[in-house]
Amino acid sequence: MLEARNLTLHHGGSQILHGIDIDARPGRVTCVMGNNGVGKTSLLSLLAGRHPRSGGTIRLDGRELGRVTAQQMARMGVGYVPQGRAIFPMLTVRENMETGFACLPRNQRSIPDEIFDSFPVLAEMAHRRGGDLSGGQQQQLAIARALITRPRVLLLDEPTEGIQPNIIAQIGRVVATLRERGDMAIVLVEQYFDFAWDLGDDFLVLERGRAVAHGSKADLRREDLHARLAGHAAA
Q: Which residues does the UniProt record annotate as the domain ABC transporter (predicted)?
């Protein structure tokens, strides 16, 4: 679904990403892992069209993409849930979700029932302002907003950050259901190791903007991956 090769990214005079390869395939979760400041969020922002890459290629459904904007990527089926949620605090929950309509044709501008099935609290609080929700509820809202765009590729940046355990479990169930549906590719940036390992099919570990480990779950040992990440944190 989404293939990227030799991605590089610069910010000012600094190079943030160095030759990153990543694949996101339907029915699979690709986990991008590493400690703070290694380039995980920058990679997702690049894939979402929010930052222009310095080099490398991106293909979506086999079609090579040139310079594209975030709006163009959304229209092509790439949904993005940013770190920090980025909901609109003064809009209601329903209005926040309806902002996802912007990249859809008019005949698709509705909130599917499965959104409220996955996140019942959003139905209960549809007329509350987004800023009045708890952090966990805002995270559910951010994911729902992305799903309303009918993405074929879903980019999730640290969905468990600052979230209570029961909502982490709920988000995990939703991601697992989306994966099992088989028609969506999911890229998950995550530092919570157990959450990532339970959901992940493929793994990419970054350190200082470079890939230092990658492979499928079948090719990796849980203990080795955990030790590598723990070692980087200690260093």
A: 2-233
What is the tally of structural domains in the chain?
Answer: 1
Measure CA 9 to chain center.
18
d(C-alpha 98, C-alpha 208), whole Å: 37
Contact 29, 175 (CB under 8 A): yes
> Mapping DSSP to helix (H, G, I), strand (E, B) and coil, where does residue 168 land?
helix
pLDDT for residue 231: 64
E-state strands within the chain: 2-11, 14-24, 29-33, 55-60, 63-65, 78-81, 153-157, 185-189, 202-207, 210-216
- Report the CATH number that the domain containing residue 41 is assigned in CATH: 3.40.50.300
Domain that holds residue 23: 2-234
The pTM for the full model equals 0.91
Amino acid present at 98: E
Angle at 86 between CA 184 and CA 178, to 5 degrees: 15
Mean pLDDT of 175-193: 94
pLDDT one-digit tens code per residue, 26-83? 999 999 998 887 889 999 999 999 988 999 999 999 889 988 899 999 999 999 999 8
CA separation for the pair 99, 103 (Å, rounded): 9
| Count of helices and strands (H, E) across the chain | 9, 10
Burial 95-119 (b: 16+ CB within 10 A, else e): ebbbebbebeeeeeeebeeebbebb
